[in-house]
Each structure stands twice: as C-alpha cells, then as structure tokens.
C-alpha cells in the first residue's frame, strides 16, 4: 500500500481556483490508479475524478467536467486536482485514493486513502 497526504485545500470565493496535491510514498506509485473523492456534510462520499497509472485515461463526475482537471507526475509521486470556476456546492472534504488494480480508475474501487483536505467555497 501507499501512504497518501493531501494538501492545497482552503477557503476561496465562488468563481475562484484551487489546486489540490496528493503526495504518495512508495516506489510503486507509478503503477497505481489514483482518484479524488469528496464528501460534503450530510452527504455520501462521491467520486470526483480518477486517472490511470500512466495518466492516459481520466474520468470525471458530470458535476465537475470542464472545471476540474486531474493530473499526475510519477517522477514526483504526486497527483493533482486543478479546480476552477468553483461553486459553493463544491464545498467538501476532498480525499485522494490509490489502488494497484489497473482498472481502479474506471471502477472507482480504491484500497488506500488519505486523511482529506477541506475545501470551502463562499458565495
């Protein structure tokens, strides 16, 4: 398993941008599918975006398509989520996740999780 640490959350006004980072330990990061999830108060955790080990494949929730971009730098063992045109409904704790299964980015089943970073979007 990999250890995951998120950073980059904070308070931003609606329409603003933030970039989240997920730093992973372990030499096998480059072989893992990765994903971002979020959980708002009193709501179920939902998948936001996911990416295959090479970065060639990505998937997004309909609610963030065209506004969020997921990427990874395997040389730095880091995954990113660039968030733009943020809305108050994007307010949530954002978690990164990883899994060695090649299709995890598609089926959204992940075995390793970070502790989360809070994103708050004010109106």
What features would you describe in this structure?
Helix content is 3%, strand content 48%. With 123 residues, it is mainly beta. Strands 2, 4, 5, 6, 9, 10 and 11 form a seven-stranded mixed beta sheet that branches. Strands 1-3-8-7 form a four-stranded antiparallel beta sheet, with no helix packed on it. The chain is globular, with a radius of gyration of 13 Å. The mean pLDDT is 96.
Short overview:
This protein is mainly beta and 123 residues long. It has one helix at residues 104-107; strands at 4-7, 10-13, 18-24, 33-39, 46-51, 58-60, 68-73, 78-83, 92-99, 112-113, 117-122.
Topology (elements, then pairings):
Blueprint (H helix, E strand, L loop, with lengths): L3 E4 L2 E4 L4 E7 L8 E7 L6 E6 L6 E3 L7 E6 L4 E6 L8 E8 L4 H4 L4 E2 L3 E6 L1
Parallel strand pairs: 2-11
Antiparallel strand pairs: 1-3, 3-8, 4-5, 4-9, 5-6, 7-8, 9-10, 9-11
Enumerate how many helices there are, as a single number: 1
Q: Write down the oligomeric state.
A: single chain
Shape: globular
Radius of gyration: 13 Å
H/E element sequence = EEEEEEEEEHEE
Largest sheet, described in full?
7 strands, mixed
Q: Could you give the count of β-strands?
A: 11
How much of the sequence lies in strands comes to over 45%
End-to-end separation: 39 Å
Proportion of residues in helical segments:
under 10%
Q: Return residue spans where pLDDT drops below 50 for at least 5 consecutive residues.
A: none
Structural category: mainly beta
């Amino acid at each position: 398993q990999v250890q995951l640490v998120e950073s980059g959350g904070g308070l931003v006004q609606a329409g603003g941008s933030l970039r989240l980072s997920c730093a992973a330990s372990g030499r096998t990061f480059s072989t893992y599918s990765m994903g971002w999830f979020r959980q708002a108060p009193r709501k179920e955790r939902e998948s936001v975006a996911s990416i295959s080990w090479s970065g060639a494949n990505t998937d997004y929730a309909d609610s963030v398509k065209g506004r969020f971009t997921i990427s990874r730098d395997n040389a730095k063992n880091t995954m990113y989520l660039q968030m733009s045109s943020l809305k108050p409904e994007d307010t949530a704790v954002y978690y990164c996740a990883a899994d060695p299964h090649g299709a995890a980015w598609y089926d959204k089943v992940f075995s390793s999780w970070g502790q989360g970073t809070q994103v708050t979007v004010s109106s």
